[in-house]
Amino acid sequence: MAWRDSRRNRSRLLLFISSIILGIAALVAIYSLGDNLNSNIDQQAATLLGADLALTGNQESKGDTRTLLDSISALALQSSEERSFASMVYFVNSDDSRLAQVKALSGTYPYYGSLETMPVAAGQTFRNHQQALVDHTLMLQYGAEVGDSIKIGDVTFVIAGALEKAPGQNGLTSTVAPAVYIPMQYLQQTGLMQKGSRIAYRYYFQMPEKINSDLMVASLEKRLELADLDYKTIQTQKEDTGRSFRDLTRFLGLIGFVALLLGCIGVASAIHIYIKEKLRSIAILRCLGVKPREAFLIYLIQILLIGILGSMAGALLGTIIQQFLPLIIIDILPFELETSLSWLSISQGIIVGSIISLLFALPPLLSIRSISPLNVLRQVDKADSGFRDPLLWIVYLLILIFVYGFSFYQMKNWITALTFTVSVAGSFLFLYGIAISLMWAVRRYFPSSWGYLPRQGLANLFRPNNQTAILIVSIGLATSLMATLFLVQNILMARVQLSTRPDQPNIVLFDIQTEQKEGILSLAAKNNIPVNQSVPIVNMRLEEINGKDASHYQADTIHRRVGRLFGREYRVTFRDSLTSSESILDGEWKGKYDPTSDLVPISVEKGFADRGKMALGDTLTFNVQGTLMQTRITSLRDVNWAEVQTNFLVLFPTGVLEDAPQFHVVLTHVPNAEMSARFQQEIVEAYPNVSVIDLALIIKVLDEIFTKIGFVIRFMAGFSILTGIIVLIASVLISKYQRLQESVLLRTLGASRKQILTITALEYVFLGGLASLTGIVISTLASWALARFSFDAPFTLPIWPLLGIALLVTVLTVVIGLANSRGILSRSPLEVLRRDA
Amino acid sequence: MSAILNLKNVGKSYKSGNSTLSVLQDINFEVHPGSTLSIVGPSGSGKTTLLGLCAGLDRASTGQVTLHGTQLNGLSEDALAALRNQYIGFIFQNFQLLPTLTALENVMVPMELRGEKNIKARSIELLDKVGLADRSHHYPTQLSGGEQQRVSLARAFSNRPSILFADEPTGNLDAETSEKVVKLLFELNREAGTTLVLVTHDPELAAKTQRIISIKGGKLVSDVLQ
């Protein structure tokens, strides 16, 4: 019976269910991607690290640390060392310079995989000559070719090859910090290894097969901790990489799930109308003796079968899409990704799709049980299941449990899953609420003086069985995803672009030695470049908090996180006043040290104090390059990190650190790109150790990153947009007969073709307009909240681009609406009017 | 006096696969302004098809329909629509109100389509005449069948038509409501001096018109003046 009853409606049922196809496709594609990532990481973990064991520290190895490294080397088959630091690289031919990540390498690292270069041999040959490997995008950027020269510090290197790939490098890291490899033996000559330079020291080992690196580092954990060395083995690399990509695929999976939920709401809405239209057939069946339960089963079976078919189609589509997903994330992948069929993901997709389409279809289906046979004689029921039906509430509960279960399965954390479930339910209700309010407001305040055509176009949105609210929600959600992405990008770019204002610094010079400071200031003065700030920086380490050292905190399971504050080096400044980005939250700021008082009064950033469980009056002992210094926290500060200037966690008063070894940071503002290039050039030539951060370059880099990440998000938002389009097409087709009837009636009453087309177009203008407006309202609220609470940045509303997005969405809606309404005008009025008689 | 509606050798046939189905054959009659006329006949006799041809809702396969001095056969869809808007009023068995508009707005539609201004007062007046002034802001779903047909009556007269076509105007109403609607229809018609052409099964309703045309098997079988 279910099969026979569906005979005339199969294509329509398929259309309903097609709105979940994309959601399932998204899920299957992303699950498959996750599966493929995992298996690829397993296969390629060794080449990701390039060695069996990698140790990293931030100071030169001496004493015990050296002994430890030597003892590991003695066990290893091979070992290599790397010093990595930021430095200016000067391209001799193009007379340009750019900040890059310089890596001085000794030994034959990597042991697994290779430094992929063009020409291929360069990855090996550069090690024995005064040659360098330069990131290929950097070479492209500066028009450099193999054989050209670059200058790093005091040494000129010949470019041996373009670096295509190195262990752990991906497209994004090469944008942020392009790498330049040089042989270790030339490092000293560069003159860049000065005190204060921030250098990462890495040691790579290839271990013999009989030694398990994980067991070895486990036994050495205490010594590594004392030596302040972090370790990575192939296994930990596998876990780290796997974790970060798992986070990515989970995030993308959740966006896909939102698209699926959106589709499901579309399905529920379409089935609701389908059942209303089937009222008479159901009533006839009931008259002929079919029990309510049997009538319910007839339609349940139809929907279940169609749900399974839809999910299978979605799984097929997802499998096709996943072949292209690696292309989208290629820039953030540190390895080659080979795709293969993931049967697990396909079956997961089909099961999830079947269950969820059934669950969402159940509320309208349940109403079948209450349809009276009396409807055959006259309409008494409206096929609405009352909210008093306990089964309906059970279904709603099941939906919530399913959403929760799914998100728990994705996130493996019950609180996050609960937050996601509540947020999704809340967001949909919020969207729905906004859609309903907007519809109400437009209807209530629509100017009655407007012409008939716009009024009729608007009135059409409120026709019986309309799906206006669900369409506004789905199209609105897609719009809000696009608009939020745009607004966030705008907020962040605006923050960086502040630096283009004349009063804001746009060039930062760092690693300036004390004896170089005057020279740099006079160089700036000679070029008429104002110096906004010159800040002394002293490196120090935290030894004790309230007389307790790192070992105390590391032994204490509750305060273990505090222990992490000890390992690192702090860059601290001293001055007698606060800057515009600082304000005292608690205590009293003391700008000058009074030698008669016992301890040095310092000011600590509030967040840092919270992380270290520190309070006013606590004592901190710092090791200032060999000298222990006792301090007391006398004030807590709020720091606006967004402001372009040097900001510090710990601030000393004047009169303490003046004689300590220090380096300087200078912030300047250069008025244009030409002068900026010339000034940077002069600095690099005169002071090769000094690094220059050009904020214009940062803006460019940020822009590139946004383009790359934005593409991934836009791709996922695309699923929501397409789902919205399918819900729109389904809804236009569902209401096609009704709209046909309305149009024919208007033609009978004398409306011209143009008038009817205008009414139809205006209906979709209002629909698209309301939907995009809903999306923009939501994205504005979300972006404002992000700007206010997350980025701590001023929020401005770029009206024109947002209107552009709204216009685009509206035009798309009108085109789809009109394309699906074609044929209405060619129908004979009499034919339609009779059909209804 | 010249006829407002004139049918000459009118026929209508439909293609069904390879065969042609003839629904109306060789119909000839004319209707004078201000007169009332019923078209009666059994189900499937072609009554509604004939009404559709007279009102320019469909095109005749053969012959000529002339309405208000204009031959309908050669007109485009838009010209037919303009003609209907100017000279014709309609009443349907199933009321055919726009569900998205209120009673008042439904009455205003024909006038708005031709861009008339200040039409609200006239629409309210018409609704008042059919006894629904107090329900002018209700939507069709909020009205009973009889009320919907009364709104449809008000709409039919809103553009001051020269001729009114009614297709089974009481077909969906109970006896009591039918009586009220019919009374209103004839009153309004008399007041406006409109020509009335109605299709009905109901001999009592047909008897209220001045002339009855009977159709059977697509042919005109009698034309009786009462």
Write the layout of secondary structure elements.
The complex is a heterodimer of chains A (837) and B (226).
Chain A: H1 2-6, H2 10-49, E1 53-57, H3 63-75, E2 78-91, E3 96-105, E4 116-118, H4 122-125, E5 131-135, H5 136-141, E6 149-152, E7 155-165, H6 171-176, E8 179-183, H7 187-190, E9 199-206, H8 213-226, E10 230-233, H9 234-277, H10 279-287, H11 292-322, H12 325-328, H13 343-366, H14 390-411, H15 414-445, H16 452-459, H17 468-497, E11 507-513, H18 514-526, E12 531-545, H19 550-555, H20 560-567, E13 569-574, E14 582-587, E15 600-605, H21 606-611, E16 619-624, E17 627-639, E18 650-652, E19 663-668, H22 673-686, E20 691-694, H23 695-734, H24 736-748, H25 753-790, H26 799-821, H27 829-835
Parallel strand pairs in A: 3-8, 5-7, 13-18, 15-17
Antiparallel strand pairs in A: 1-9, 1-10, 2-3, 2-6, 2-9, 4-7, 5-8, 6-7, 11-19, 11-20, 12-13, 12-16, 12-19, 14-17, 15-18, 16-17
Helix pairs in contact in A: 2-9, 2-11, 2-13, 2-23, 9-13, 9-17, 9-23, 11-13, 13-14, 14-15, 15-17, 15-25, 16-25, 17-23, 17-25, 17-26, 23-26, 24-27, 25-26
Chain B: E1 5-16, E2 19-31, E3 36-40, H1 47-54, E4 62-67, E5 70-71, H2 77-87, E6 88-91, H3 103-113, H4 120-129, H5 145-158, E7 163-167, H6 175-192, E8 195-200, H7 203-206, E9 211-216, E10 219-225
Parallel strand pairs in B: 3-8, 3-9, 6-7, 7-8
Antiparallel strand pairs in B: 1-2, 1-4, 4-5, 9-10
